[in-house]
Amino acid sequence: MLSTASVPAEDRLAYWHEVISQTYGELASVRLDISTPTDEPFQGMLTAAQVGSMGVATTESDPVQVRQSTRGVAGADEDHVNVCLVERGRLVIDQNGGQALLPPGSLTLFDTTRPYTSTLPAAFLMHVFQIPRWMLGVREADLRRIASVPIHADTQTSALVIPFLALLATQAGSHSPHIGELLARNAADLVATLLAERLEGEDPDTGTDAARTALRLRIKAFVDRHLADPDLSPQTIAAAHHVSVRHVHRLFQDEDTTVGRWIQHRRLEACRRELARPGRNAPAVTAVAQRFGFTSPSHFSRAFRTAYGASPREWRTAHGHP
User: Fold this and answer.
1) pLDDT bucket at 206, cuts 50 / 70 / 90
2) Does pLDDT of 176 surpass 50?
3) Which residue in 44, 96, 203, 307 has its CB near the most CB atoms, within 10 A?
């Protein structure tokens, strides 16, 4: 928790600049101009926490304007997507020649790598979720299309997702690592579903990028539900979604991967989480592998070491299991 309460009034905006730069690493190398509409001493508080692979930052402060006038430097900090949810107050974002207004209970994707001005004209409470891009599985082109577009709780999907995220933010940091990782995965899946709905709604033609993104997300959710099935394959996926096997392969080519590699990646991620799960009894490596669709222990061990630089048993031991 970072607060201006103990900082001299004349130093608070400079301190707030430091707080923002530390919390959002991609802003450390850009020029930020921070101003307030009054001469009253600025007051602000930011709480940062980790929920599995997802960062959550909650900001409560007086009215403020933040202007980024330079483009961010490409790097590791671009490997996540910022989802901004306004709970109290209003947020106005000026970016890419347009303006977006977010009233309470709405959210948007916030691109901090390009110049913008964000204005909060009244006291506010806002949550920002830093979600790894690989968890969303949404194409870069689609992310750019929907960045800074307000999403309101005006559909059944958004009315489900927005309150879930708001509640998750209030509980951030209170869960065990295992539960936190599961919640992060659920949050990312819900956000991805919401984005797919909005993208598909913009242009419902089944030949569009938005429709392909929506189908790809449905297929990824199907894969996650059927990891335990050793027969999971492009053929079974195509049959379940009433498309051709060739079409399934094309969907994953858009992301420079293959169906088989994606299935193995998701299986390895599930095994990695399970082997690190806290508890008295260490899960048997072979049992975990079989549970998530690996039929060959030797293949599983080789694939795990290639992905994470350690054998499954070494990984389990490193996380406190004998």
Assistant:
1) very low
2) yes
3) 44
Return the closest-CA partner of residue 191 out of 301, 295, 108, 76: 108
User: What's the rounded mean pLDDT across residues 100-125?
Assistant: 88
Find all residues with CB under 8 Å of 161, minimum gap 6, and list them: 190, 191, 193, 194
Average per-residue pLDDT for the chain: 84
The token duo for 201 is: 């709604």
Q: For 279-307, write each residue's pLDDT tens digit.
A: 656 678 999 999 999 989 999 999 999 99
Least Cα distance to 180 among 17, 321, 54, 311 occurs for: 54
Amino acid at 45: M
Q: Are 223 and 269 in contact (CB under 8 A)?
A: no
Q: Please list, in sequence order, all residues whose beta carbon lies within 8 angstroms of the beta carbon of residue 92, skipping any fewer than 6 positions away.
A: 99, 100, 101, 102, 118, 119, 120, 121
> What residues have CB less than 8 Å from 40, skipping those under 6 apart?
62
Token pair, residue 59, equals 């900001």
Q: Is 292:267 a contact under the CB 8 Å cutoff?
A: yes
Tokens 């890419």 belong to 96
Mean of pLDDT values over 117-125: 91
Can you read off the two tokens belonging to residue 234?
């492009």
| CB-based contact 215:251 (threshold 8 Å) | yes
What domains lie within the chain, and their CATH numbers? 2-151 (2.60.120.10), 226-318 (1.10.10.60)
